Sequence to fold (320 residues):
Amino acid sequence: MKEIPITEIENLKIGNAQDIEGGTGCTVLLCARGMPAGLDVRGGGPASRESQLLSPLAAAEAVHAVLLSGGSAFGLDAAGGVMRYLAERDVGFDTGITKVPLVCASCLFDLVVGSPDARPDAKMAYAACRAAEQDAPEEGNFGAGTGATVGKYHGPATMMKSGLGIYAVQLGDLKVGAVVAVNALGDVFDIDSGRRLAGMLTPDLSTFADTERTMYTENTVRGNLFTGNTTIGAVITNARFDKTKMNKIAAMAHNGYARALNPVNTTADGDSIYALSVGDMQSDLNLVGTLAARVMGKAVARAVLRAEPAYGLKTARDFL
Fold:
C-alpha cells in the first residue's frame, strides 16, 4: 500500500473556495458521470441537504456532487451554485424534461471565527466548482476548513485552529481517499502513535489540556457547547459498489473519526461522512471499508497539521 495524491482517483474533481477574512469556505467534490453514494451521520447536530437521496429506498442510484461547507445551516444555500455549474454543463439526472443535478451537502459551524455574517453562498460554491477544474485542492485553511477549530469544551478561549485534510492510498489497483473538514468539540490524535496533535489548551495556552479527563473531573451538566461544531468529510474509492454498500462503507469510515477524535459524535457535533464510488474495479466491501477508516483517520490528522495560525488561534505546529 502506498500514499498517493487524491487527484489520482479517476472521475473525481475537488475544488475549494473561501473567504479568509470572514472565516468560512466550501469544498466541492464533482463526478459528472454520477457516483453511487452513502452517508452516515452520528453527531447530534447535523446540517445537511438531499440526504434522503442516499437511502437505499430512494430511486436515484447516483449523485453528481457533494458539497462540504461552513456557515452552519446558512451554508446549505451554497449548493445552488453547484447545481448551476453542473446544469450549465448538461450534467444531471435526466427527467425526460431536463437534467437535474443531484447535489448533497453538509455544513459545519464556523460562525465563531471571522465574521458571523460571512457565509458560503451560491457564488462561492460556483467558484469552488471552477477551482475543481484545476483539480489541485489545497489543505489547511482552505475550503470548508477555513474557519474550522477543535478543542472547544471550555469555549473559544482555549480552542485551536484546524482545517481541511486530504489523504489517499493505493493497494494494487484499488484507490481509496478521504477529504475532511475537522471542526470537532474534542481533541485530535495520530491514529498510529496515539500522540495528541491538537485540542483544548490549558488556560495559559501553554500546553494541551485533556478534554476527556476534564469532562470526568468536572462531572457537571454543561449548557451550549457550540452546538453545531461538526466534522464533515467524504471517502472516495475507484471500486464499484451500489449505494447500499456505500452506506456501509460510510459507516465503517466513522471508525477513522473514532480513532482520531476524542470525544466524538457528541450532541454538540454533527459528525457526518459521505462515501462515494467513482470507478468500476471490483473489490471487497470489507477491505474498502477498512481502508476508508484508515484514510479518514489520516486525513483528520492532516487537517490539523496543515492548519496555519489564524483568528488569534494556535495550531498543532506551535506544539509539535
